[in-house]
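Anyone? Bumping this.
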Amino acid sequence: MEQSDEALCRSVANREPGAFDLLVERYQERAYRIAWSIVRDREDARDCAQEAFIKLHDAADSFAGQAKFSTWFYRILVNCCLDSRRRGRGWRRLLVWRDADDADRADDLVERQPAPPDDPGERMDEDQQMSRIWEAVETLSPQQRAAVTLQYREGLATKEIASVLNTSEATVRVHLHRAFAALRQRVGGAR
Amino acid sequence: MTAHPVDRLLPHLRGELAAAERAAVDSHLAGCAECRDAMRDFAALAALVSRAPEPAPPMHWGAFRSQLHAKLERRHRPAGVGRRWSMGPLPAALAAGFAAVLLYLGVLGPGGTPPGGDQATLEGQVLAGRLEVVTQLDLVQDLDLLEDFDDIDGLDSPAPSRDS
């Protein structure tokens, strides 16, 4: 029978051989995917994911088991990503984030805009929308991207995302609503 | 009409609202076409985000784990172990600059003044560099003598005739 994440984390805390590797293999792709969704840079995402695993290794004994392991680990991971962003590795990403911050402020304008016109001739088919959806996600702020990824790719509830982002549920709702309002504006709806 | 419950539309779609909140949103939706449109678009976008292929660049997971273990080992290595030659470019440049300053101060002294403080000492240092010539002085003098011998030897030769 497969060991639960929580049990594996306890094994890591007890420095049982192989436990850390097993947990890494179980979470490496998710960790990298989430990190990439926030930092949008391959090397930074890899570094952030690895840093999160190192912190997991060192702090495994502080996992109390009250929350799910995934929530606890995602919190470490997202903090690593946001710290990386704050440190501002490289002018190129700084510019991207600046754009994202501008986009964040522009959200208020987006919300005041009327819904896109209901014109069947302007509707994109689903393939086109899929190809554009991630381009539109890139324009979101890191917090919005994190919330969208955690909810719609990793399946976390709003309450869990609030725990990961160390904020209130109300704030997560605002992040998500602003993100979807921006996506709707840029990609269009489904009418 | 009540204010648009914009930040509760997505939680409503996910079934995350408590009963009272859900009822309030439903009541608003019944009379607000704008929010109904937004709700329908949000549902379609949520489905797209969930299904759209992940655009993250590919990663070699074996290399990822190897690098992770290397970082972990480096992080937990006792201070100083294996770091003898790990000086980065900036510290190395600073160390080289510091060494150059020390050399300058040690040999010439600040302001270009020699350590001894006078010209005679500097000349002494220059002469010391030519010490080999001084120690072989006898040989040098002998070479001069050999040149003199050539001149002396030529004294017995008949002088060239002015007629020829």
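Late reply, but here is one note on the structure posted above: The two ends of chain A are 47 Å apart (CA to CA).
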